[in-house]
Amino acid sequence: MIKNYFYLVVGVFCLLFAVTHTINGVNTILEELDNSLIVDDAKVAFTYVWHIIGIENLIFGIALIIMAFQKSLSKARFAAWLIIIILALRWIAISAFTLVNSSGGISRILPDTVAIFVVITLLILGTRGRDKVLYE
Q: How far is CA 109 from the centre of its chain?
């Protein structure tokens, strides 16, 4: 029985993000790298970092779906807060590097910002509330 619908929804989102991130990379960004003059070591590094993010999203999704069914909420809450912190730091890194190194400014990070803040908000809602209200 589902104990936390917020974790379940975010888990499904993270699985979706993993798939779309990987497909987007393989079909656009990484394909463009193959046709560029960038040295092979840089291509390899960019490719594995791209896939690490996809795998990280996949692991978050699986973990959150499992957490949605857990009876022990203290461990699930702790894991949720760790994921929140990782996502917040990911957003800070994305924002800082994009704003410093890109001419597109805020419009370049808007989709990532919206996605990350929706996920963080839902996770925070999942960690709030009384156990008896949310989880029975």
A: 14
Among the listed residues 136, 94, 100, the one whose alpha carbon sits nearest the alpha carbon of residue 115: 94
- List the one residue out of 64, 47, 54 whose CA is nearest residue 4: 64
Per-residue pLDDT of 64-92, as tens digits, reads: 999 999 987 888 999 999 999 999 999 99
Rounded Cα–Cα distance for residues 77 and 40 (Å) = 42
Q: Give the pair of three-digit tokens for residue 111.
A: 């989709």
Q: What six digits make up the tokens of 42?
A: 């840089």
Global confidence as pTM: 0.85
Tell me if 64 sits within 8 A of 8, measured CB to CB.
yes
State in Å, rounded, how far the first CA of the chain is from the last one: 9
